[in-house]
């Protein structure tokens, strides 16, 4: 399918879509950048950029609502006009998400909720489980992090200083 960014500044939903479809069987990571400056949104897939402006004068985005990555738990959560002609479902892996320069935690503790979510590589260590250059070691169905000298904690997230 295609990667889409949808945003609404109050008058209509702007839909940005990549020029080329993305195939989930393609075993390579893609770099997707999406955002908005003023009333212009942008969507970039591996360096190929798509932009579109909302109506002039419209610049306010409601950021007090939930933020969904990958899809919606129920289509009843949004206005039917917003999702008209939208393909449903996402199959694939999302490894990192940054919002305003801050990385979102893509785990059970970082998410408000989720559905049909699992670890992409299928191992307890997953992707970057151990922080601060810690080394992950699989122990049965769990993991343990071997932390550098100045770090401690389950995932080497706590400084000893």
TrEMBL record:
Keyword Disulfide bond: yes
Protein's UniProt keywords contain Translocase: no
Disulfide bonds: 147-156
SUPFAM superfamilies the record matches: Concanavalin A-like lectins/glucanases, EGF/Laminin
Xref: Gene3D superfamilies: 2.60.120.200, Laminin
The entry's keywords: Disulfide bond, EGF-like domain
Residue ranges of domain EGF-like in the record: 121-157
Domain Laminin G: 1-125
Name listed for the protein in its UniProt record: EGF-like domain-containing protein
